[in-house]
Amino acid sequence: MSKCSDTHDKYLWYVERDSIALVERDGAELVSVKDANLTLGVTGVKRAASFDGDSVADHLDQVSELPAHLHLAIAYKTIAEFYRDPRNLNPQMSQFYESEYKQLILEGKKHAKRGYLGNFTIKPQDY
After folding, report:
1. What is the count of structural domains for the chain?
2. Is residue 2 part of a domain?
């Protein structure tokens, strides 16, 4: 399923099968982009891939794709859930680790909203 944008008069972009295509309008026809020096800014979200394998031993040599500053947030959330368990019930400790988790999540959201710029080159393609 493709997602299409026609917000600009000269160019049209669409996303399909994890790819971005940019075409130029030439009257009623869509053609390859003629300007080879066109600069394009793309902002996206990447989701971390799941670990492969069935046992813990299969995961020992794999590295998480999650950003390093989120690793501690996951640990805090796990500890907070641990202290909510009836066998280890300690509401004060659970609340403490939950607040630490929420603080790191707020920092992560701020980090995600920062503008990161990159340079991309458009290579004309004929269709």
Report:
1. 1
2. no
Would residue 55 count as lying in a domain?
A: yes
The two three-digit tokens of residue 41, written as one number:
């800014």
The tokens for 34 are 């003629």
Please tell me the predicted confidence (pLDDT) of residue 46: 65
CB 48 within 8 A of CB 54: no
123: in domain:
no
Cβ burial, residue 73 (10 Å; 0-12/13-18/19+):
buried
- The parent domain of residue 55 ranges over 48-116
Tell me the chain's radius of gyration from C-alpha atoms.
23
Within a domain: 6: no
Q: Mean pLDDT in the chain?
A: 75
What is the band of 115 on the pLDDT scale with cuts at 50, 70, 90? low
pLDDT tens figures, 80-110: 988 988 888 889 999 999 999 999 888 888 7
Rounded-to-integer distance, Cα 11 and Cα 7, Å: 8
32 close to 122: Cβ distance less than 8 angstroms: no
Paired with 31 in beta bridges are 24
